[in-house]
Amino acid sequence: MPDLSAFADPGFLAVQCLNGLTQAMFLFLIASGLSLIFGVLGVLNFAHGSLYMLGAYLSYTIASWFVGPPATFWVALVLGSIGVALVGGIIESVFLRPVYRREELEQLLVTYALVLIISDLVKLAWGAENRSGSRPALLAGSVDIAGRDFPTYNLFVLAVGPLVALALWLLLRRTQFGRLVRAAANDREMVGVVGVNVKGLFTGVFMLGAWLGGLGGGLAAPIGAIFPGMDVEIIVESFIVVVVGGMGSLGGTLLGALIIGQLNAFGILFFPRFAIVFVYVLMAVVLVIRPWGLLGRPVTRG
Predict the structure, then answer these.
(1) Residue 130 lies in a domain
(2) How far is CA 10 from CA 7, 13, 15, 205, 241, in A?
(3) DSSP secondary structure string for all residues of the chain
(4) pLDDT over 60 (residue 3)
(5) Considering the domain boundaries, does residue 193 fall inside one?
(6) pLDDT digit string (tens) for 149-182?
(7) 220 or 247, which is more confident
């Protein structure tokens, strides 16, 4: 039987809810890049979790080069995520561009092969042992929430998620690049006919998605262990988020991440043996009722 006594402690419930929101922000950063790539390129990028892992390792390594200066964490976060974006550009132009017109299964096999390649390269470069990053001194403490301590760094992550969501919305809705991205998602052939460099646009979209994954990895580095295999853990939940929220829907991705984050936070608390099942049950229910997701819509590609 679940321990219902925790409901009597509002501070505990508040902190647990914030923990779920923190996980949701990480899931949103990863899943938003995954959803963006699928929405425009039509590729289910199974290697997106590997970009997240690479972002964590690069941020950790860059931070180790500048131990001491106060700006170490921020420099590592910026350079690490940019490095992942550059890797993403190489992946798109070398490995994915030749398979855009092929069956989805072939595309999935290519991205799965990239998972294995990146995993071996990570082990070769950093070894198989666990590593951990350090939080910036400014965010190293905690705050009191209804008598419970909550890490200041987690509050920072909670602020980053909505800011990134707003920035993505403005980019996609208020810029020329965003208009081209939305047009390409609906009819890539027409975008090419009017003179747009579709190859360059696709590379830019993939790099943006990779940057989001690398940013998520860099932010996660100071919270948990950095290890080979962390990519597989995150990609499964990220796929569930985009399926629940709706493939290609930014708002749906955010909603899906919030739901999954809270399910994990309270499910593992009250039903630890069955917590992992809840997200799969939710995904199955959504697929039965709305196969295109909560905020998604059926898409026909031109």
Answers:
(1) yes
(2) 7, 5, 9, 43, 28
(3) ---GGGGG-HHHHHHHHHHHHHHHHHHHHHHHHHHHHHHHH----TTHHHHHHHHHHHHHHHHHHT-SSTTHHHHHHHHHHHHHHHHHHHHIIIIIGGGTTS-HHHHHHHHHHHHHHHHHHHHHHH-SS-B-----GGGSSEEEETTEEEEHHHHHHHHHHHHHHHHHHHHHHHSHHHHHHHHHHH-HHHHHHTT--HHHHHHHHHHHHHHHHHHHHHHHTTTS-B-TTHHHHHHHHHHHHHHHH-TT-HHHHHHHHHHHHHHHHHHHHH-TTTHHHHHHHHHHHHHHH-TT-SS-------
(4) no
(5) yes
(6) 999 999 999 999 999 999 999 999 999 999 998 8
(7) 220
Count, residues in the chain: 302
Can you give the pTM of this predicted structure? Answer: 0.92
CB contact set of 118 (below 8 Å; sequence gap of 6+): 47, 50, 53, 54, 231
pLDDT at 8: 63
User: By residue range, what is the domain housing residue 24?
Assistant: 18-227
At residue 302, the pLDDT reads 46
Please tell me the total count of domains within the chain.
Answer: 1
Q: What pLDDT, on a 0 to 100 scale, did the predictor assign at position 248?
A: 79
Tokens of 278: 């809840």
In a domain, 42, yes or no: yes
The C-alpha atoms of residue 227 and residue 221 are separated, in whole angstroms, by: 10
